[in-house]
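Translate structure to sequence.
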């Protein structure tokens, strides 16, 4: 009898242990299934997010006017696109690129897509590659003697008394709310190329982005002479170039006396900004309030 009770006791213990083990295995399997389900859900989420990011990137790339790789190959430097924002966003972005360029050895410049396409056409029309045009421009820049060029150019193009006094004009153009932004005529959202030019001197920008010699726009040597002069005196750097405009950026606005003198130089360089825009006294006032110098040739 005792042996039977002992045997039954052992059977009960084995049954209990078996039940506990079974329950443990059941919950362990359930736990593994839950973890696998959570992992699968996470994997699906990651894949969906990656797909959304890829599609978003493709949409952005498709919205650029020209392939950025082609732009970089044509200009011979690293390029990317940037969109004009509101307020001073483009100027802030330029300042950031300028600071980075000082450390990495380049000068940034904003180029309109329209002017890039114009350069492409020019390469075909003149029969010279961009690299060949660049070498020719470099030789011209190396020969520029800015004192001689500026002396002759300013003596011929300085404003007369009527222009200096601002007769017959008003200051509406000088009251633009975003005078400290770049690409001022452009609208928010418009795309521009920002090129990292491997140059140290601001005037060398004009070897990589050729300007001048059309309509009333001065020849290359004049652009170089003014660029050297304004950089030495005010730290001015050509920051943006379009089909018919150039914008410089300075470290800080000019004081009142300097502003009057520089306004006259700017008139000589680009008469259209006064004759079809802002009277000279208002331009001088503007130069004492903004870091951006805007030039336009009709």
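Result:
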């Amino acid at each position: 009898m005792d042996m039977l009770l002992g045997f039954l006791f052992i059977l009960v213990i084995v049954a209990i242990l078996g039940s506990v083990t079974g329950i443990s295995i059941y919950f362990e399997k359930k736990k593994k299934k839950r973890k696998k389900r959570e992992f699968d859900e996470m994997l699906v989420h990651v894949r969906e997010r990656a797909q959304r990011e890829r599609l978003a990137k493709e949409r952005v790339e498709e919205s650029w006017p020209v392939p950025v790789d082609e732009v970089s190959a044509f200009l011979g430097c690293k390029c990317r696109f940037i969109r004009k924002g509101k307020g001073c966003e483009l100027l802030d972005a330029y300042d950031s690129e300028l600071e980075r360029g000082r450390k990495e050895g380049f000068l940034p410049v904003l180029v309109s897509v329209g002017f890039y396409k114009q350069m492409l056409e020019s390469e075909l029309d003149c029969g010279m590659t961009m690299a060949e045009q660049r070498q020719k421009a470099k030789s011209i820049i190396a020969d520029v003697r800015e004192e001689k060029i500026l002396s002759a150019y300013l003596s011929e193009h300085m404003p007369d008394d009527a222009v200096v006094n601002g007769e017959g004009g008003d200051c509406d153009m000088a009251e633009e709310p975003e005078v400290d932004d770049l690409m001022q005529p452009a609208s928010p959202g418009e795309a521009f190329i920002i090129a990292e030019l491997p140059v140290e001197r601001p005037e060398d920008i004009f070897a990589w982005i050729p300007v001048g010699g059309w309509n009333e726009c001065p020849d290359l040597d004049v652009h170089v002479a003014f660029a050297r002069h304004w950089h030495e005196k005010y730290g001015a750097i050509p920051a943006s170039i379009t089909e018919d405009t150039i914008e410089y950026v300075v470290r800080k606005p000019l004081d009142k006396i300097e502003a009057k003198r520089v306004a006259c130089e700017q008139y000589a360089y680009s008469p259209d900004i006064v004759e079809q825009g802002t009277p000279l006294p208002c331009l001088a006032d503007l130069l004492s309030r903004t870091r951006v110098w805007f030039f336009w040739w009709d």
